[in-house]
Amino acid sequence: MFTEAQNAAIVRTELDFVFFQEFEYDATTEPGIATANTAELFKPQYTTHAAEIYEVFKGVGLYAQTAETGTVVLDTPKVANKVFVNVLDWTKGVELSKDMFDDNMHGVWSRIVADMATKARVTQDYNAFGIFRGAFTTTLTADGAALISSSHTLLNGQTYSNLLGSGGGLTSDTLFTAIVTLRQQVDQAGVLLGNQPAILLVPTKLFKKACELTDSALIADSGNNAINVYRSAYGFKVMTSPFLDAAVGGSDTAYYLLSKNHSVTRLIRQGIETNLRDWSFSNNRTYFYQANFRESYYAPDYIGIVGTTS
C-alpha cells in the first residue's frame, strides 16, 4: 500500500539529496581557498554541551642545569584567565506548497533548497573568518586584549606584542619580519618557542602577491638570479578567503602568519541537520523544510599568530 508516510519519506529524500549535494561541495579543492572546514586554520573541537569553559595555561620555564645529586629545580605552572564559550544555534527554514513540490515548476523547489545549502556554507565561512576580521579589535583573547595586540598581559606578569608594525604592505621584507616575530614569540611563561610558520593567510587582493612571493623559483619582482627562500626553506601554505575582505567588513591589506600551535578553534556541538514537516500536518497544504547547525568560534590565546593591518 502506498501510504502518506511513504510519500513523506520520498519527499524528504529528494529535498535532502539536493541540499547535501550543494552543501558538501568542497571549495578547498580550489588552490589556496580556506573555509570553515579547513582544520589547519580552524581546529575542530567537538562538544556534547551547550557551552564550554577554558583557561589559559602557563607552563614551566626552561630546564635548569643540576648537579649529579643536586635538588631538582621546581617550577609553578599556572592556569588562569577563564574563557566561557557558548555554542550558538544557526537556523533557516522555508515553506513549500504541496502543489509547488508536486509540479516542481522550472525546478523552483530544487533551487530553493540548493540555495539554503549554499547559505549554510556561507554562514559557516562568514562566522569562522570573523575571528580574523576582528583580530585587531573585537576578537578578544582570555587576557582581554585583541587577538593581535601590542598589549597582551602574560601570566608571568610581562607584556607581549604579536602585532607587526603597519605600513609597507606585504613584501619580501615585511614577510621576513613576520617570520622572525613568529619564531621569536614567547609563551605565557616568557619562554621562546621557536614557532615554525605554517599558514600565511591573506585577503583576496593579496593572494596573487603572496603566491608570487612564496612560490616563485627565484626572488619575486627582482632581476637578481637568487633562490626564493620562502619556497626552498620555509614551505608554508598560502591561504585566502573572500570573508577576510573589506567587502564584508574586513581588510584588503591585513595579513596573518600562523604556526601549527595556534589556538583558533571551531567548537562544534552539532553538524548540519535537516528536517521536513509533511504537508498533512499543516492547515494550508505546505511542507516546511528546515536546516540547522550548532557551533561557535574562539581563540583563547595569542600563541602561534602574528599579524598586521597593512
Task: Describe the fold and architecture.
The protein has a single domain (4-61, 71-308), classed as phage-related protein like fold, CATH 3.90.1690. It starts with a helix and ends with a strand. It is built from six helices and twelve strands. The longest helix is centred in the middle third of the chain and has 26 residues, at 108-133. The strands form four sheets. The chain has a four-stranded mixed sheet. With 310 residues, it is α+β, with helices and mostly antiparallel strands.
Question: Which descriptors would you attach to this protein?
Answer:
four-stranded mixed sheet; disordered N terminus; phage-related protein like fold; 310 residues
Structure summarized in a few sentences:
With 310 residues, the protein is α+β, with helices and mostly antiparallel strands. The protein has helices spanning 4-23, 98-103, 108-133, 172-183, 204-215, 229-234; strands at residues 43-46, 51-58, 78-86, 88-97, 152-153, 159-160, 197-202, 237-240, 255-259, 265-277, 286-298, 305-308.
